[in-house]
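Put briefly, the fold is written as integer tokens. The lines below illustrate.
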Amino acid sequence: MKAFPNPFARHFTLAIQSSSDDLVQVQIYDMIGRELEVQKATVSELSTKEIGTNYPSGVYNVVVSQGDKVKSVRMIKR
């Protein structure tokens, strides 16, 4: 899983490589742990989604899970 660009000015995109057809869950948290957004989508749907458009400047934790696999990345909005 890759998230780009980082840091981002308007939005970021997720690039996920998976051999599974299971739905992917994306959870986004601010730095104090509040959940801001949860999305469930297929791998191909996520590659076209623009995430973070309405977020204020700051640091965000993005947690991506599919089945028993979980990855997280820290994103910075300028």
Q: What stands out?
A: The chain has a mean pLDDT of 95. The CA atoms of residues 18 and 43 lie 7 Å apart. DSSP finds one helix and six strands in the chain. The beta strands are 2-4, 13-15, 24-30, 35-41, 58-66, 69-77.
